[in-house]
Amino acid sequence: MAIDMHAHWLPEELHNAMQADGMSPRPFDNLDERLKEMDASGYTHAVLSCVDRSIESMPLEQSLKYTRIYNDATAAACAAHPEQLTGLASLPSADMEVMIEEFDRYTSMPGMVGAVLPGDGFLTLERAARYRPLFKAANEKGAVFLVHYGRLADDPEGTVTPVADNGRLRAGSLDMQARLSQNMITFALTDFLDEFPNVTVISHNLGGNITFEVERMDHRTLIDRPGEELPSKRLRNARLLVDCNSFGARGIEMAVAVYGADKIVCGSDGTPFGMDWTDNALDEARITDEEKDLIREGNARRALARSSSALAAAR
Length: 315
Description:
The protein is an alpha/beta fold. It is 51% helix and 13% strand. The chain is built from twelve helices and eight strands. It is globular and about 60 Å long. The two termini are 31 Å apart.
């Protein structure tokens, strides 16, 4: 059995609203079908997040309209299936005050444990500073943030140059993993999270390429700043989680060696293919059964219980 901490979906209400406005959203997800897919793949619980991240970087009025529709639909789904679903909010990135208002509104609903935040907001410590007020609000509630590859509103530095060949691989793998690696540096190798001990941060896709690059990072540190604590140790001790969405057995093994099995949770992108892919990768991984159990559900269960208890106390 497993808990899916990275389960995207598109509710029918958001699909219909976008379509009515002349947009062409992907097909919506049928909730009953999703629950059947989870059961067939051995997933007992999923943390829902919006599959269409573009709504968060739209101009404020449009973004707030769509994120509220998404948040209300997700809250209703979680209320209807509390044993199987919890939810993460989508928040409009154009205005921090509005973000916090919507975050507070959403997390006042049962089953809502936090929000998804755009990874481009955390490419550097300077960028992350803008989010301190939101993290302060989240710290009071013990909320969960899934920091996901995504753009900010009105951010020319976040533009990805269009490519004529292999666009999905270049943008959806190479660019994504590089930006997630930058996020991990911000969270693990700066003091940003120090003042927010009650916030659970999750980076998806094993936190980018860090597990492959950490030995070089240690090497550069030994040359450039001898005596400084090595990145590998700081990553091991960092107070954050990564999910293993889309990675295979060898990637999971490397992540266990770098982060520890107690820092990894399941992710599937919310598809039957992703659920089965992750489950098969864990079966094949050369790690202990105890480590597999932690990744499949133990770590997620603790994080969700901590967040739910804190949110219940804050309401």
